[in-house]
Amino acid sequence: MREPLQKMLTTEFSKRSLRSMIRQKDGNQGILKEKHLREAYLGWLEKTIASNKFQFGKLKPIKVGSFLAYQPTLLGDDLVLRRINGIIRNRYSTRQANRNTIIQQATILLEENCPKHIYKIDIAKFYESIDRDFIIKKLLDDNLISSTTHNLISILFKNFGKYIKYGLPRGLSISATLSELYLKDLDKKISEMDGVYYYSRYVDDMIIFSSKSRPSILSEITDFLPGKMKINFDKCVSYYVGCNCLITCECGRSPCQCAVKCVCPSTPQIEINYLGYKLTIPKIPLRDTKKKIIVDVSMSENKVRRIKARMVIAFLDNHKLSNFSLLHDRIKFLTENRRIKTQGRRGKLMSGIHYNYPLITNMAPFIAMNQFLRSQVYANTGQFGVKQSSMLSAQQKNDLAKLSFVSGFKSKRSKSVSSHSLKNIRKCWQ
User: Fold this and answer.
1) Is the CB of residue 174 less than 8 Å from the CB of residue 79?
2) For the chain, what are the domain ranges?
3) Of 130, 344, 363, 371, which is least surrounded by CB within 10 A?
4) In sequence order, which residues have a C-beta less than 8 Å from that of residue 346 and are 6 or more positions away?
């Protein structure tokens, strides 16, 4: 091994490298407040790792939807996991795909006035079906990480076994990174399929553009899937954009005479719900090949339903707590944006209705959610309405009704929110 690389490997878990893993949100932990305590703790971590005596502590389970996610309970575990994650990402150039970049690329392709076959494919129980033994062997065979890092991952996987029999636990950033590593070969195989000119995957959601019809694409991808991974057939959808005559060619000539004699008046309108967005392709006259296609981008129907459900839950929780300030913060959380402090050059992380869906061009879902919010605020019939009417004063109702999804999206209005406030706001939705 060359000297520079050897030196780099021996400093992977030094005090300095571990110190760089400390984040703004860690600042409230007592051991970090005092410099001498922090340095002593980092020194202890470095020494424990170097002597192969480091062990990961307990993981805290958190209910997220229908799944359990996990979080480290110890600061040291958090720092070591972040460091391992950074090493893997660096050595393998592995990154999770950017959701908005995928939508931008898909929109551009959909606006091309040419026939195309589109396949939306979902992997069932994604994290739960990843083979940990395969990852350990791959990391060892590739020889891109140090023995110290490999040993820590082995210890980590043994710790995972206390919580899940197979796969990787949700909620840990290293699980996302290792899942990308696990599926690198799958991504390559799908990209190289005959006729496929665009392929992207965001965690378990794939989208494929092909110039050819592939009736057996699901069985082909099933053969590519590693280990115990399976396709969720109930969530798979295929679309065809173009002339129906091209699908039902009967002349057998080249070029197809059926297409020349096309009698299709236009392509059908197609809606694709993907990654929280809904992409709507309008009807286009087929004979007008110069007609520019403009794809309508709005929020997906599932996401709209989820936000409406969160509004209702927030109101119901207020019926129990009678805490208008918290209710107001929760509705603002849904309708506006927030700034979250982060360490390093990135400064503040922006999140919320605009920053989570910056590509939306159609305001209709936001208008509908505004109307739904007002209907809940001013409800006065039924069990919910009677309770709501007695819980809120006229001024409080007006204050809530002023909050707007449309305004929050267009103005990009945001406010700083502390981690403690975020925890209280999200509590009723967990």
Assistant:
1) no
2) 1-54, 99-264, 302-429
3) 344
4) none
Determine how many CB atoms are found less than 10 A away from the CB of residue 23.
13
Ordered DSSP codes for 19-83: HTT--GGGGGSHHHHSHHHHHHHHHHHHHHHHTT------EEEEEETTEEEEEESSHHHHHHHHH
422 by Cβ neighbours in 10 Å (0-12 / 13-18 / 19+) ranks as middle
Give residue 159's pLDDT: 95
* Rounded Cα–Cα distance for residues 415 and 413 (Å): 7
Dist CA 293 CA 109 (whole Å): 10
For residue 42, which amino acid is it? Answer: L
What is the full DSSP assignment across 117-161?
A: EEEEEEEETTGGG--HHHHHHHHHHHT-S-HHHHHHHHHHHHHHT
- Going by C-alpha positions, the residue among 332, 278, 330 that lies closest to residue 302 is 278
Helices (H), 263-392: 301-321, 324-335, 364-377, 382-391
Low-confidence ranges of the chain (pLDDT < 50): 1-9, 343-346
Fold of 99-264: Alpha-Beta Plaits (3.30.70)
Q: What is the pTM of this model?
A: 0.87
Helix (H, G, I), strand (E, B) or coil at 35: helix
